[in-house]
Design brief:
375 residues; 14-stranded antiparallel β-sheet; eight-stranded antiparallel beta barrel
């Protein structure tokens, strides 16, 4: 790169791949619009499908695309990710991540980078392969396979991909006219089965899971400091999603958060932007040291509101723990304290004066994820 000394070039080459993974770990679930968004703007959420989740490479350095799979049963929570990115030196442009939380045993967290020669993907197609790691679509749904170190994971999801919703409203412009971010919920709480092998011991998996998708060609961490995502379901199989981010001082309006309520068939009941929120009760999260809501009220369009109650943890990750002590110092120039916190949570929805389908306001139960960068 012109204008950089040799030492500066070496620093850039060292930092870039880890900057990639920090971005991925913190942003690869849901990121939402846009530093150009004004606080009075309404979110127009829309249905999405296989076309949106397909492999869509872009030439900008800020490009990365991630597919995040989640799985849960009574004792096991799994979060698996495939990433393709233009960040990083040389041919390092893709990788995988795996988070395994076992009740009573804690969390295991692994990432691995690969070069472009180990990536097999076709623009506009969903199937993607990174070395021995695959995600593929067949007549029954989506299958995922990951292999790293002493772990092998296989998951099969039964989903027709017809229940997806874009919580960012599609591709949303950021900064320059050509920059955008897109965040989609493909499906959640669908039947999932498979197995995991750890240290030679095989465990069968039978539960439910989901897929979340992120695509961006701009480094959105530059204007945000904390992300969140809550995906939930109630006894009548209505889905309630809410997510977004808190911005830094450069973000107009201070935050951007949206909601979506879908029925059991995936049809949209209501969507909108959160217009106000109140933290009713908070506490210092013991693993990260961040002050996070325990009870929060959110208000959105059409007079509806909801209360979210965060309960026990089902996965906590110190992102800096997976890099060297030398790099840890430099990463803090961009991210003061990067953590991921996954918790069980409940949500109660109320829409006074609004006629909603029977059962749609029964209590929702789900997983609340926080992606933390700065306190």
């Amino acid at each position: 790169m012109a204008g950089l000394s040799n030492s500066e070039n070496r620093f850039k080459d060292i930092l870039s791949p880890h900057k990639t993974w920090i971005c991925f770990l913190l942003l690869a679930n849901f990121l939402f619009p846009s530093s150009n968004l004004k606080s009075q703007d309404s979110a127009i959420l829309k249905k999405v499908g296989l076309r949106e989740y397909s492999y869509q490479p872009h030439t900008q350095e800020g490009y990365f695309q991630a597919w995040n799979y989640s799985y849960k049963d009574d004792k096991t929570y799994i979060y698996a990710t495939f990433l393709v990115s233009n960040l990083g030196p040389g041919t390092k442009n893709c990788g995988i991540s795996l988070v395994i939380h076992t009740v009573g045993e804690g969390t295991q967290f692994i990432t691995k980078e690969f070069s472009s020669k180990e990536l097999t993907a076709e623009k506009g197609k969903f199937d993607l392969k990174i070395e021995n790691n695959h995600m593929s679509l067949n007549e029954k749904g989506i299958e995922v396979q990951q292999e790293m170190k002493n772990i092998k994971l296989f998951l099969s999801f039964k989903s027709d991909l017809k229940q997806g919703v874009s919580l960012s409203g599609g591709k949303y412009p950021v900064k320059d006219p050509g920059g955008f971010v897109q965040a989609d919920m493909a499906y959640s709480f669908q039947s999932a089965w498979g197995y995991i092998i750890q240290d030679g011991k095989k465990k069968d998996l039978l539960g439910t899971g989901g897929l979340e998708h992120l695509l961006t060609n701009y480094e959105v961490y530059k204007y945000s400091r904390r992300w969140e995502l809550f995906r939930s379901i109630n006894a009548k199989e209505f889905r309630f999603y809410t997510g977004g981010f808190l911005g830094n001082d450069s973000f107009p309006g201070g935050y951007f958060r949206t909601v979506a309520l879908l029925n059991s068939e995936g049809k949209t009941v209501l969507t909108g932007k959160i217009t106000k929120f109140e933290v009713v009760e908070s506490s210092k999260e013991p693993f990260s040291g961040y002050e996070l809501p325990l009870r929060e009220k959110i208000y959105f369009e059409d007079g509806c509101h909801a209360e979210i109650v965060r309960k026990q943890s089902v996965g906590s990750i110190n992102v800096l723990s997976n890099i060297s002590s030398v790099l840890r110092f430099f990463i803090r120039l961009f991210f003061a304290k990067p953590y991921q916190i996954y918790s069980l949570a409940n949500l109660n929805l109320s829409c006074p004066g609004k006629e909603l389908p029977p059962g749609s306001t029964e209590t929702f139960h789900g997983i609340l994820s926080y992606y933390l960068i700065n306190p």
